[in-house]
Design a protein that fits this description.
- This protein is an alpha+beta fold.
- The chain folds into 5 domains: 2-156, Rossmann fold (3-Layer(aba) Sandwich); 165-217 and 471-586, Topoisomerase I, domain 2 (Orthogonal Bundle); 223-276 and 402-465, Topoisomerase I, domain 3 (Distorted Sandwich); 282-396, Orthogonal Bundle (Topoisomerase I, domain 4); 599-690, no CATH class.
- The protein has 20 helices and 24 strands.
- The chain has a 7-stranded antiparallel sheet with strand order 14-11-12-13-10-9-15, with helices on one face. A 6-stranded mixed sheet has the order 2-3-4-1-7-8, with helices on both faces. A 4-stranded antiparallel sheet has the order 18-19-20-21.
- Helix 3 (113-125) packs across helix 5 (158-190), helix 5 (158-190) packs antiparallel against helix 17 and helix 9 (297-309) crosses helix 12.
Length: 691
C-alpha cells in the first residue's frame, strides 16, 4: 500500500520529502523535467509529487464561433487552451504515472481556496478520486510539515471546494462574455481588432478609479493665503485662522504685526502614547512595502510567496492581523537573534513577556504574517527588503508603547494670534525595533516660557490654492477594494495589474486613460449592472453561503447566467454605437501612451514602436517613410515621460525592468549622459563576466 502526497509547487514537495525522512530523500524525475520523491515512512512507501500551480482551467465547452453570450463550461488541462501554460503538461503526465497503484491520497497544497481547487482537480481529473486527506500548514518549516502530516484532516473541505469552483466559473463567465462583447463592439463597428476586457471585480474597481478621476477633473482650485511668523529663535508659527480667503485680510494681518514684538501667550505640552503596530495581514504588507520600499502590491505578493516557500516567513495570503499564542515566539526571536541584522533588537525582546499587539482581523486558516526564524541563505535585493520589513514588523509588534511629546506654543503679536506646533519622541519604545520603517519626523520647538518676549524675524504671506483629491496608488486602491469587500486578498493585485495591461490606467498615481474613462462611461450607459458594487458583493456573499452549505453551486451559477443574458442582450442592440466610441478612445490612449516628443528633422511625432523581427522596442518618426529618423532603446518596457534630458534637451523615456527600479533614458544617440550610461553598463557586464 502506497501513499501519494500532492503539493502545489516543486519546492514544497522537496520540503515535505525532506521533513518526512531523516536522510536525504530519493529524488526521481519524470521525463527529466518534473521532480518527485520516493520515501519510506513508518514502513509505508510514500511518493511526493508536485503541480506547478493550476494544472486545469475553465474553458468553453461547445466552442462554435467567437461570440457571446457563452455559458457552456468545462474544466480542461491548462496547456490545451493557454499557450503560456504549455509547461504544465509534463506535470500532469508525471502525476498520472506516479499515482498508479496509490491507495491513499494526501493533498498538501497551500491551505486556501486556490490550493483546495488545485488539489481537488488533480484528484478528479488525474487520479479519478473525489476526496483525500488534507495537510494544513502555515509555514514550510520541518516542524510544521511533520505536524501537518501527523495531524492531517480526513477529508478535503467540500464547502471550500464548491465555493472555489463557483468563483472560478463565475469569474470566467464574466470575463469571457464582457471581454468578447467589448472587443467585438469595436470589430463590428470599425473592423479594428483590439482586445478589451472587463470582469466581475475589474469593472467596479475601474469605476472607483473613474469616480476619483472625475472628481479631479471637476475640481476648481480656489486661492487662499496663509500668514507665517518666523521668530529670531527659530519658531515657525502660523496665524490661527489658517486660511484667509480674501487677500486683503491676510495683508491686514501683516500690516498690523510688521515691526512688532511677539509674546508667548501659552505653552502646552502633552504626552501621547503610540501603540505598537499590528502584525501584517497581506493588505497591510502590500501597503507598507509600497509606501516604504516602492514595491508594487503584485511584486510584494510574489516575493512573499517565495519567502514562504523557502520557509523564511509564514503563509502570506492571510487576512488576519493576529498572532496566536500557540506560535513559539520565544524560539523565533532566539533564532532571529542569531541573524546579525536583528541580534540587538531580538535580544531586547528575549528579556520580556512576549505578547503581540494583535489587531481585530481574523482568518480561519492562517495567522498574521511572521518570520519563522530560519535564516535566509541568499536573497535578491528586493526580496531582502521585504524580508527585513516582515521581520522588523514582527519584532515591533512585541515592543513597548512609544511616547511622543506634543508642544503647542501660542504667540501674540499686536492682538494677532499665531500657533506653532512641534513634537519629539521622549520614549522610542517599538520605534527602535521597527527601525527606519517607523519614519517618525520630529519637529522640535525651542524651549520658551509664558510671558516671554521674542523678536520677530519675518512675517510673510504664502499664496496657495486648494488641491484636488489624490489619485489612488496601486496600494491604496487594494485597501479600498478590501474595505468595500470587492475581490479577494489573493486576486486584488492581479486585478490592478490587468487595468494597467489593458491601458485603462497609467502611471503610479493610477491616472485613468481616455479608454478607461470611455469603458466605464459606455458600460454605465448600456449595462450599468456590470459596474454595480452591490451586485458583486452579493455574489461574494452567496459564495460564502455555498462554503457554509446554505446554497448550491448550480443555484448561484443559474442566477449569474440569467443576469448576464439580460445585460448582454441589451449590449448587442447598441453594439456599433459602443464600438465606435471605444475605438476613438483607444486611438487617443494609444497615441498618448506611445508619443515621446517631436521629431527634430520634420516636426512629426516620435513614437515608441515594437519590432517583431528584432523583438525589441525603438523610437521612430510617425512621418515614415518620408522621415526615417529612429532611436534605439535598451531592453525593458519603455514608457513616455514629460521630461527632457537636462544635458541635450532630447525627450526621455522611462525604462521598466522586472524586479528593478525604473529609470529615465535619453533617446539621443550622441548625448554625453547616455554615452556615459552605456559605458557604465559595459563595465558592469565586464566585471560580472570576470566573477
Amino acid at each position: 500500500m502506497s501513499q501519494l502526497i500532492i503539493t502545489e509547487k516543486p519546492s514544497v514537495s522537496q520540503k515535505i520529502a525532506e521533513a518526512l525522512v531523516n536522510k536525504k530523500p530519493k529524488k526521481l524525475a519524470y521525463n527529466k523535467k518534473v521532480p518527485y520523491y520516493e520515501l519510506e515512512v513508518n514502513g509505508k512507501k510514500v511518493f511526493v509529487v508536485c503541480a506547478a500551480g493550476h494544472l486545469f482551467t475553465v474553458a468553453e465547452k461547445d466552442k462554435k464561433k467567437w461570440d457571446y453570450p457563452v455559458f457552456s463550461t468545462e474544466w480542461v488541462p491548462s496547456y490545451k487552451v493557454q499557450k503560456s501554460a504549455g509547461f504544465t503538461k509534463p506535470y500532469i503526465d508525471a502525476i498520472k504515472k506516479v499515482s498508479k497503484g496509490a491507495k491513499e491520497f494526501i493533498v498538501a497544497c497551500d491551505w486556501d481556496i486556490e490550493g483546495e481547487i488545485i488539489g481537488y482537480n488533480i484528484l478528479k481529473f488525474i487520479c479519478n478520486k473525489d476526496n483525500a486527506s488534507r495537510m494544513h500548514f502555515s509555514t514550510t518549516t520541518k516542524e510544521d510539515l511533520l505536524n501537518a502530516y501527523r495531524d492531517r484532516a480526513d477529508n478535503l473541505d467540500k464547502g471550500l471546494v464548491e465555493s472555489g469552483l463557483t468563483r472560478h466559473i463565475l469569474d470566467w463567465l464574466w470575463g469571457i462574455n464582457l471581454s468578447r462583447a467589448l472587443t467585438l463592439s469595436i470589430k463590428h463597428s470599425t473592423g479594428m481588432f483590439k482586445v478589451l476586457s472587463s470582469g466581475r471585480v475589474q469593472g467596479p474597481a475601474l469605476s472607483i478609479l473613474v469616480e476619483r478621476e472625475k472628481e479631479i477633473q471637476a475640481f476648481k482650485a480656489e486661492p487662499y493665503w496663509q500668514v507665517e511668523l518666523v521668530t529670531e529663535n527659530g519658531i515657525h508659527a502660523w496665524h490661527k485662522n489658517d486660511k484667509f480667503w480674501k487677500k486683503e485680510e491676510s495683508d491686514n494681518v501683516v500690516r498690523r504685526t510688521k515691526g512688532k514684538k511677539s509674546a508667548v501667550n501659552k505653552v502646552e505640552k502633552k504626552e501621547q502614547s503610540l501603540a505598537p503596530p499590528h502584525p501584517f495581514d497581506l493588505t497591510a504588507l502590500q501597503l507598507e512595502a509600497y509606501r516604504r520600499l516602492g514595491i508594487s502590491p503584485k511584486e510584494t505578493l510574489s516575493i512573499a510567496q517565495e519567502l514562504y516557500v523557502e520557509s523564511y516567513i509564514s503563509y502570506p495570503r492571510t487576512s488576519s492581523n493576529q498572532l496566536p499564542a500557540t506560535i513559539n515566539f520565544k524560539k523565533i526571536i532566539k533564532d532571529l537573534s542569531e541573524q546579525k541584522d536583528y541580534k540587538k533588537e531580538a535580544e531586547k525582546l528575549s528579556q520580556k513577556e512576549l505578547k503581540p499587539n494583535n489587531g481585530g482581523k481574523n482568518d480561519p486558516a492562517h495567522p498574521a504574517i511572521y518570520p519563522t526564524g530560519v535564516a535566509p541563505k541568499k536573497l535578491r535585493e528586493r526580496s531582502k527588503k521585504v524580508y527585513d520589513l516582515v521581520v522588523r514588523r514582527f519584532l515591533a509588534t512585541f515592543g513597548e508603547e512609544a511616547v511622543k511629546e506634543n508642544m503647542n506654543v501660542e504667540l501674540g503679536v499686536n492682538g494677532e494670534i499665531f500657533i506653532a506646533k512641534g513634537s519629539r519622541l521622549v520614549k522610542p519604545g517599538w520605534h527602535e525595533l521597527y527601525g527606519k520603517y517607523a519614519a517618525f519626523k520630529e519637529e522640535q520647538l525651542p524651549e520658551v516660557k509664558e510671558g516671554q518676549e521674542i523678536d520677530v524675524k519675518d512675517i510673510k504671506v504664502h499664496d496657495k490654492e486648494t488641491q484636488p483629491p489624490n489619485r489612488y496608488t496601486p496600494a491604496s486602491i487594494i485597501k479600498e477594494l478590501e474595505k468595500r469587500n470587492l475581490g479577494t486578498k489573493a486576486t486584488r493585485a492581479d486585478i490592478i495589474d490587468a487595468l494597467y495591461q489593458r491601458d485603462y490606467v497609467a502611471e503610479n498615481s493610477m491616472e485613468v486613460t481616455e479608454l478607461g474613462m470611455k469603458i466605464v462611461e459606455t458600460l454605465k450607459k448600456y449595462a450599468p449592472d456590470i459596474l454595480d458594487e452591490e451586485l458583486t458583493r452579493q455574489f461574494e456573499h452567496e459564495m460564502e453561503q455555498i462554503q457554509e452549505g446554505k446554497k448550491s453551486k448550480e443555484e448561484v451559477l443559474k442566477k449569474a447566467e440569467g443576469f448576464l443574458s439580460r445585460i448582454l442582450e441589451k449590449f448587442k442592440i447598441h453594439e456599433k454605437s459602443i464600438g465606435s466610441a471605444l475605438s476613438e478612445a483607444y486611438k487617443e490612449t494609444r497615441n498618448k501612451a506611445s508619443i515621446v516628443g517631436k521629431c527634430r528633422n520634420c516636426g512629426g511625432d516620435l513614437k515608441i514602436l515594437y519590432s517583431k523581427r528584432f523583438k525589441s522596442y525603438f523610437v521612430a518618426c510617425s512621418s515614415y517613410p518620408n522621415c526615417k529618423t529612429t532611436y534605439s532603446l535598451p531592453r525593458g518596457l519603455p514608457k513616455p515621460t514629460d521630461l527632457e534630458c537636462p544635458e541635450c534637451k532630447f525627450p526621455m523615456v522611462m525604462i521598466i525592468r522586472a524586479g528593478k527600479r525604473p529609470f529615465n533614458y535619453c533617446i539621443n544617440k550622441q548625448c554625453p549622459k547616455r554615452l556615459e550610461w552605456i559605458k557604465q553598463q559595459e563595465e558592469k557586464k565586464a566585471q560580472e563576466a570576470k566573477k
